[in-house]
Amino acid sequence: MTTTVALARCTTYEDRNVRAAVEEVLQPFGGIRIFVSPGMRVLLKPNLIVARHQDQAATTHPVVLKVVAELVLEAGASPIIGDSPAFGSARGVAARGGILQMAEELGIEVVEFRHPQRIRLSRGSLRSILVDRLAFDTGAIINLPKLKVHNQMLLSMAVKNLFGFVPGRRKALCHLLFSGNRKGFARLILEIMEHVQPELTIVDGIVGMEGDGPANGDPRGFGLVAAGTDCVAIDMVLADVLGITPRDVPILDVAHELGIGETQLENIAIVGEALESVRVRDLQVPRLVSIGFSVPRLARGMVKHCLALVRARRGG
Q1: pLDDT higher than threshold 80 for residue 137
Q2: What is the pLDDT of residue 178?
Q3: How much is the pLDDT for 128?
Q4: First vs last Cα of the chain: how many Å apart?
Q5: CB-CB contact of 224 with 10 (8 Å)
Q6: Is pLDDT of 125 > 90?
Q7: Nearest Cα to 216, choosing from 309, 162, 152, 305?
Q8: 58 Cβ partners below 8 Å, 6+ apart?
Q9: Residue 126 CB-density burial (10 A; 0-12 exposed, 13-18 middle, 19+ buried)
Q10: CATH number of the domain to which 93 belongs
Q11: Considering the entire predicted model, what is its pTM?
């Protein structure tokens, strides 16, 4: 069966332009009402990696979230926004990135992933892992990643965004456990994806990040919104757009080995904007660093995380 990935051009974050692009990429699937229904509680899962201003392109842009939230509301469903940042709180990161104000204006709650649930794993060395129970307690998940490079996994897109379901500091433990084993870490993220299974993914590639991603790189206008139901297929198409060989992306390499998702471009129906019109030919990619964190780095990260939580509680 052919997998569909939809692409639309969008070069600014003006509300009407983003709305038009999001509606365009949803049209091949039948619109938002195919994925949500009246009365349903819908989790919007952005990338809230760390507190950065929206113009720094580390987090999903608030206008993209706003447009998707409005579409969900218009369908009669109830959206909530949730994530578990590497540093600080979801509300603190959302406030810095312009998302919290937008959510409050629409009457939407921003929630912390603080209620872990253990899931069994079968593909790698770990037997189980904790993910937030909201992954299973909502009617639908809409995955809203940012299109970025990543200095550990090369690219951060649809699949990688789902690692955010692992609660805060436990992410660092995963990094320690898979130090020196990039493919093992990729296998873990893919297995989390298999359990979470978002109904829909919409990628914010209007302005993404190149260079020293995923948090400290340079904003880069890609002028693109992408959507689909298969996270692996979306990442395959976006890797091609960015001029990256899929075998060089650990998540896509392992997905191909394990037969997870669609990893054959010829089996993906790319609809909407032509690939050539959005292709990137001079992407600045990072030098890959170790998956693992040193103990001093981990200790500094924990202190930074605690300070960010304190600032968030004080409203700073």
Answers
A1: yes
A2: 93
A3: 96
A4: 50
A5: yes
A6: no
A7: 152
A8: 47, 49, 50, 52, 97, 146, 148, 209, 214, 215, 216
A9: middle
A10: 3.40.50.11440
A11: 0.93
Q: Which domain holds residue 289?
A: 3-313
Residue type, 187: R
Task: Give Cα separations from 215 to 4, 58, 75 (angstroms).
Answer: 30, 5, 34
Query: And the tokens for 258?
Result: 């394990």
Confidence of residue 292 (pLDDT cuts 50, 70, 90): confident
Task: Determine whether 289 is exposed, middle or buried from the number of CB atoms within 10 Å of its CB (0-12, 13-18, 19+).
Answer: exposed
Distance (Å, whole) CA 175 – CA 290 = 9
What is the tally of structural domains in the chain? 1
Q: Measured between alpha carbons, how far is 202 from 63 in angstroms, rounded to an integer?
A: 13
C-alpha 166/C-alpha 259 separation (Å) is 23
User: For the chain, what is the radius of gyration of the CA atoms?
Assistant: 18
Residue 17 CA: distances (Å) to CA of 70, 161, 224: 14, 24, 11
The strand ranges marked E within the chain are: 3-9, 41-46, 78-83, 110-112, 116-120, 128-132, 140-144, 146-150, 154-156, 200-210, 218-228, 268-272
Q: For residue 83, give the nearest of 10, 2, 143, 12 by alpha carbon.
A: 143
Q: Are 237 and 269 in contact (CB under 8 A)?
A: no
Amino acid letter, 298: L
H/E stretch holding 114 reads none
